[in-house]
Amino acid sequence: MRIGAHVSPAGGLYKSIERGTELGADSIQIFNQSPRMWRPTAYGEEDFARFREAREQSQIGDVLIHAVYLLNCASEDPEIRQKSLTSLTHSLRVGDSIGATGVVLHPGSAKTGHVGEAITRAGAVIAEALAESERCALHLEDTAGAGGTLGRSFEELAALIEAAGAHERLGMCLDSCHLLASGYDVRTIDGLDGTLAECDRIVGLGRLHSIHLNDSMTPLGSNRDRHAPPGQGEFGEDGLAVFLSEPRFADLPVVLETGTVGGAVAAEDITLVRALSERGQAMRAAGSTG
Length: 290
Ligand SMILES: [Zn+2]
Ligand SMILES: [Zn+2]
Prior knowledge:
Blueprint: E1 2-6, H1 13-23, E2 27-31, H2 45-56, E3 62-66, H3 78-98, E4 102-105, H4 115-131, E5 138-141, H5 154-163, E6 170-175, H6 176-181, H7 189-202, E7 208-213, E8 215-216, E9 227-228, H8 236-244, E10 253-256, H9 267-286
Parallel strand pairs: 1-2, 1-10, 2-3, 3-4, 4-5, 5-6, 6-7, 7-10
Antiparallel strand pairs: 8-9
The protein binds zinc ion (2 copies).
Residues 66, 104, 106, 141 line the site of one zinc ion.
């Protein structure tokens, strides 16, 4: 399990490696452009080279790029879809250039419209972005299910992958907070087993490539996306220890997005999550989790 954190690339892409290293992270996630603006950040070959050099000298294994939240590949508005395609393609190309593990994408929102048609529109945009980039994987993230957001269930994730041509570069990112909020109780061994069995049957665990580790401020099935720092939400330390004990997450990047320093992840948060992971695995080995 390569535990890491969402960090800022402010001041240069390579700075994100420095920030991850300061936190003691084994993996990082970044936005590749300002999360509030459509305009992509224009990186040059020098930025990429400096990033790759910093990464080689660090212990950072995985680098995830989170596509910005403005994107809605499922929008009914062709202009929004075109902008989303441009931005997503840019993210994937940055991923190609820095050797990212994957670009994480919220699949989009149907707003108040027809969900099936929204999935078809999102699939077309995603397929085109993959065709216009070379190597970087795309991880569709499960969502809390607020409003018309797509990806609230494994059925929707499977339908999105299908609509995008079941491309081999398509995978998924599961967010612990979003799973709980969308009704999957992954705080117990039985609940987690049942959820992953369902995920395997409907999507296929071969597509599971990354994990977001967030606690949840709102309860099971609330359909609200409100992250809490690790241990301070509906999971609590016990629930997170169980979630982190899952052997099928052992080879994945597990990235914290919310921490205790004004929402940002601190070194202490990573230390806590590492300890919870060890505790969960010891409990599982002793057969004492329930
Ligand atoms: Zn996300
Ligand atoms: Zn979230």
